[in-house]
MFS transporter
Amino acid sequence: MDQRSTTPDIEKSAIRKVSLRLVPFVALMFFINFLDRTAISFAGPNGLTKDLGLTAAQFGFAAGIFFVGYILLEIPSNLALHKFGARRWMARIMVTWGVIALLFTWVSSVQGLYWLRFLLGVAEAGFFPGAILFLSLWVPSKHRSHVLGLFYLAQPLTTLIGAPLAALLIGADGLFGLEGWRIMFFGVAVPAIVVGVIAWFYLTDKPADAKWLTAAEREWLSNELAKEDRSKADGHGSHAGKALLDPRVWAYALIYFGLVYGLYALAFFLPTIIGGFEAQFGTKFNVFQKGLITAIPYLPAALALFFWSRHSTKHGVHNWHVGIPAFIGAVSIPCALFMQSPAATVAVVTVTACAIFAALPNFWALPSRFLTGAGAAAGIALINTFGNFGGFAAPFITGALKDATGGYQVPMFAVGGFMALSGVLVMSIRAARSSPVANPSPLSLKPQAHAK
């Protein structure tokens, strides 16, 4: 049989095997990662804030200081991953953050909480951009939005599954003589250590080393990825230093900042907002019911993420695949707190969650089309680092504005403003010509001639 006639079958089987073998496991790692970093949002309104005597601003600072440690070591960690390989480095990251996350079980002061959140950020530094880089090294660009979309499903599922799980753990109040929120911290930390050890033996650094692929599949993947790397090698995308100075990287960093600001304002304060329904609407919910309500927006968000990513995979990722959701989120999040019932509030918050999660996986398909090698490691890390300033700013500014104004309306307008900024920026990049990601020509901040 002619090689050209067999190539589509080899391509299909290779991508299917990567999607089944690697994506679910890396997504599980991401699930645990996001649950550990946002566990404080479940603990806050369920005993931690009261037991440690935290104001809204102090709670926001504790949530946000995680990102200071994360930011400091993000780029060095991702370059280390590029040097030592994903298998070793991501396993090391998981075990380290799991040990630190376990220590939250016994935190007893505001200062101790600040230090542990800071150290958790240091330990987790490099995991998320490392995961994005790792998956990008396994699939060619035309399949990347599909694979990243499957990977990103772990994030809304973290709250969909994690909120009721956290509520169940918190409901075990008194077990081993510990408050419920301490038991919750213990319960979400242990899996990180276990899965981190498994990752050392399970992950494979590159297609050429994958014994679970056939020789033809290994050859096809390696050749396709090498071909893409060669097409990017004549730009700045393969050099770490040049990538860090590339204006395209900084433009995407600003866009990501706004998206992450919205993501973490929602993640850290939605449980608190739901906890305030009793005072606002006179409704009463127990801890488990609050956990279920917190989870409601994330099932539609997971579906929106899946189908929006599927559309972008079929038609090619365009800037509007990020811009439209950003604008929808910008409008919906401030509106949520002007609703007149818990159901209406949660419904509008669900629209916001759908918008944020529809935008995120498609966003990461954009910079990977001009970044490669060490440039990809540095550029993706820089984008994620700057975005994570949004992770620090969102809870801190939200808490401070809430303390200053007495409500969450003004803080949510700030969230909407940052998401609108992301929408404007992403739609302005190559506004004169919207080109799908499958096009191998480098992304530019100005109109570009069609590739020949």
